[in-house]
From TrEMBL:
Gene Ontology MF term list: L-aspartate oxidase activity
Domain (FAD-dependent oxidoreductase 2 FAD-binding): residue spans on this chain: 15-393
SUPFAM superfamilies reported for this sequence: FAD/NAD(P)-binding domain, Succinate dehydrogenase/fumarate reductase flavoprotein C-terminal domain, Succinate dehydrogenase/fumarate reductase flavoprotein, catalytic domain
Keyword vocabulary terms for this entry: FAD, Flavoprotein, Oxidoreductase, Pyridine nucleotide biosynthesis
Domain Fumarate reductase/succinate dehydrogenase flavoprotein-like C-terminal, residue spans: 432-522
Single Gene Ontology BP annotation: 'de novo' NAD+ biosynthetic process from L-aspartate
Cofactor(s) it depends on: FAD
Protein name stated in the entry: L-aspartate oxidase
Pathway named in the protein's UniProt entry: Cofactor biosynthesis; NAD(+) biosynthesis; iminoaspartate from L-aspartate (oxidase route): step 1/1
């Protein structure tokens, strides 16, 4: 199954095709270059327009006095609620400190204490101060800046901007040997073309635009995960969508990307209040406002449902030095008419991070030969049912290095793609709002069999909204539909509450569900689902 698209009108070649320009894609490209291989880096919009630059919190790594990878591992496993792969987590926490040092060597500058040591703070779920941050609350922007500068200084990394990846190309043996993509540009690389390589790495980021409200930028339509699905790769853990608990509430009619109020704000001592001024997290969890974000998001939604409120409040008025520590958040609040030094900040949960994605091993291999995935596009098993705060940037740093090393060791010769006659489909762009509102209503923070079945019916209606007019908006909507179908299918199958998957009709965590759900698409478009024991 493929997206309906014109035949490729041009061809580009490189040893490795990297799709995406966030921390995972940029680091993968730089690491591949250390082995002397050429890279074609394609990115959907501008090279700096992905989710990485929006990351406010920071990077978690065991770098502080008294901290250790073992302690970081324990916190990660607790947040993952029994679905983390132990080996993957061990790789993350043990190789994380060196990956951060390498990032610093590439030019990233993190905030420091007066003594000159790197400043470390806490976020929800961490029992130690281990979060590096830059510019107070602009960590992602600094990481992106440093990596982009390194990429731009390398003439053997060709960057193609405004390029939407469409589908995988395969050779006679069924291995991926490139991708088709659509470039909005001028000259020889305009319109649909093909990029041929000896390996393809998907690092396209998240899928937050599946929902009506999200912290993700507009480009986050899960294109890499959808491509992997259509290529026959397994996806896993897609039901575990992390909703960030504290997103600036802009009104009931707001859509698309919403301003994030970083978890680090609660790490610095902010309070969550309901309309009566009660700190409702106190007594609900030993860490109160610093509980893992799924616990906080569910508590907020329940309090909103109980009181009929459309949001709760975040109180930062007592935090000294707030404007210096969080200049970006402060400016964002002021831009929306809120002065955090005097006013309570209205917040509500919004979709934030996908713990699942294309299922990969410890070296980033998907189940399809020649196809790798990294970062939020991948399900490496490190996040389990719920990502621990600030482990996402670290995952991109650690596993991109492993992917590059594996590619260099096992790189095949160039092969030519065969153009099979597959069934194709396309959904009209106007169906996107229907899809997003249905997903937020029935497959959001709180779920049940009834809400999910109703969402399935709505998605079936969306699936009938077919189009014969290929364009970026139609391709994105088609990707969103396939991802929404995968999420709802897994959410219905998992009859328990675990991590960021909350079933109102199955409120307990069940030992029999200590398994991950794998899904893949057959060539004829039928879905298959299997269960996999968790490697822990």
């Amino acid at each position: 199954m493929k997206l309906l698209a014109p035949k490729p009108g041009w061809t580009a070649r490189a040893d490795v095709i990297v799709v995406g320009s966030g921390v995972a894609g940029l680091t993968t490209a730089l690491q591949i270059r250390t082995f002397g291989l050429s890279v074609l880096l394609v990115t959907k919009a501008r090279v700096d327009a992905g989710s990485t630059k929006w990351a406010q919190g920071g990077i978690a790594a065991a770098l502080g006095p008294g901290d250790s990878p073992d302690q970081h591992e324990k916190d990660t496993l607790v947040a993952g609620a029994g679905l983390c792969d132990f080996d993957a987590v061990k790789v993350l926490v043990s190789e994380g400190p060196e990956a951060v040092r390498k990032l610093i060597a590439r030019g990233a500058v993190f905030d420091k204490e007066a003594t000159g040591e790197i400043a470390l703070t806490r976020e929800g779920g961490h029992l130690r101060n281990r979060i590096l941050h830059a510019g107070g609350d602009a960590t992602g922007a600094e990481v992106s800046r440093a990596l982009l500068a390194a990429v731009r200084n390398d003439p053997d990394i060709e960057v193609v901007e405004h390029a939407l990846v469409l589908d995988a190309l395969k050779n006679e043996s069924g291995a991926v040997c490139g991708v088709t993509l659509h470039v909005i540009g001028a000259g020889t690389r305009d319109g649909v073309g093909q990029a041929i390589g000896r390996a393809v790495v998907l690092a396209t980021g998240g899928l937050g635009q599946v929902f009506a409200q999200t912290t993700n930028p507009p480009v986050s339509t899960g294109d890499g995960v959808a491509l992997a699905l259509r290529a026959g790769a397994q996806v896993a853990d897609v039901e575990f969508i992390q909703f960030h608990p504290t997103v600036l509430w802009l009104g009931d009619g707001s859509k698309g990307q919403q301003p994030l109020i970083s978890e680090a704000v609660r790490g610095e001592g902010a309070y969550l209040l309901d309309d009566a001024g009660e700190r409702f997290m106190v007594g609900l969890h030993p860490l109160a406002e610093l509980a893992p974000r799924d616990v906080v998001a569910i508590a907020i939604m329940r309090r909103m449902n109980e009181t009929g409120a459309h949001h709760v409040w975040l109180d930062v008025r007592h935090i000294e030095g707030f404007t210096d520590r969080f200049p970006t958040i402060y400016a964002s609040c002021l831009a929306h008419g809120i002065d955090p030094l005097r006013d309570l900040i209205p917040v509500a949960p919004a979709s934030h991070y996908a713990s699942g994605g294309a299922r990969v091993d410890l070296n980033g291999h998907t189940s399809v030969k020649g196809l790798y995935a990294c970062g939020e596009t991948a399900c490496s098993g490190v996040h389990g049912a719920n990502r621990l705060a600030s482990n996402s940037l670290l995952e991109g740093l650690v596993f991109s290095a492993r992917i590059a090393a594996d590619i260099a060791k096992n790189l095949p010769e160039f092969t030519e793609p065969i153009h099979e006659v597959d069934s194709s489909f396309l959904i009209e762009p106007q169906a996107r709002k229907h899809l997003q509102s249905s997903m937020s209503r029935g497959a959001g923070v709180l779920r049940s069999a009834h809400s999910l079945e109703e969402t399935e019916k709505e998605l079936a209606i969306v699936a009938t909204s077919t189009s014969t007019n290929p364009c970026v908006e139609a391709w994105e909507t088609s990707n969103l539909l396939q991802l929404a179908q995968a999420i709802v299918r897994s959410a219905l199958e998992r009859e328990e509450t675990r991590g960021s998957h909350w079933r109102e009709d199955f409120p307990e965590t069940s030992p029999q569900w200590s398994k991950r759900i794998l899904q893949h698409l057959e060539k004829d478009g039928t879905w298959n689902s299997t269960l996999q024991e968790v490697a822990n």
